[in-house]
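It is worth pausing here to work through a concrete case rather than discussing structure prediction in the abstract. The textbook approach is simple: state the sequence, then state the predicted structure, then interpret. We follow exactly that order.
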Amino acid sequence: MAKLPKFSTISAAIQAGINNIEKWYEKTGDSGAYFICLALNPNFKTAYTEAAWTPREHKASMHAFREMYHQSLTMLGSATSASDSLPTCDSELAPSKSSTSTYGTAWMENIIKNCRLKDLTDLDPHTELEAYLAAPLTNGIADIVAWWGLNSGPAQYPTLACMARNYLAIQGSAVTAERAFSSGALTNTRRRNRISPDLFSALQLLKGGYCNGYLSAQVQCEMCEAEEAHLGSFLDDLLGNADENK
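Step two, the predicted structure:
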């Protein structure tokens, strides 16, 4: 955008904004929360960072992610937490007592549930993260929190679901972004709701330049006066040369 001719007069302000974005974007590497929240999105996991980040950045973030996963696993009771929280045969695994259930149906359900119990007992919590990362990406899951609620069982991703509850609750917006939205509402009022997208963008950039000190009315006035003086001098020289050539 800064290189477009129509933004040439504010290209310096645009470039300053880009530099500011890059500065704060680099600071996201100081906290593992950004990467972990992205990795806990089943629509993306680590596919984006593998493609868009440098190998060094991705490897460092993955290392921090694994470290935090193992810390969460320890807090939940290490590798024995899964078997300790399994349902008992007297409760969930007991034969169904539904009024419509026959003895044969209840007997088969009990066998199936006992097989599930064995599978859960053999589950290694340390492989949970690798299983999640190796699973195919989901497609178009809008409610990520609900997805983790449905996949938080002992046979799925209990530790990662706990991490999701902690990390996905972190507020993602910042005061600066909220101010930008508020400023946009002041620019595009009901009486100006027919502003074109290009004009709205230009007005927001111009207003942001003035508010953040990248542009100054006094400096612009001095620049206009200098341009007028330069133009006047050029016209005087041009007219003088024309008179001499007569």
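Step three, interpretation. Confidence is low (pLDDT under 50) at residues 79-83, 85-100. The longest helix spans residues 217-244.
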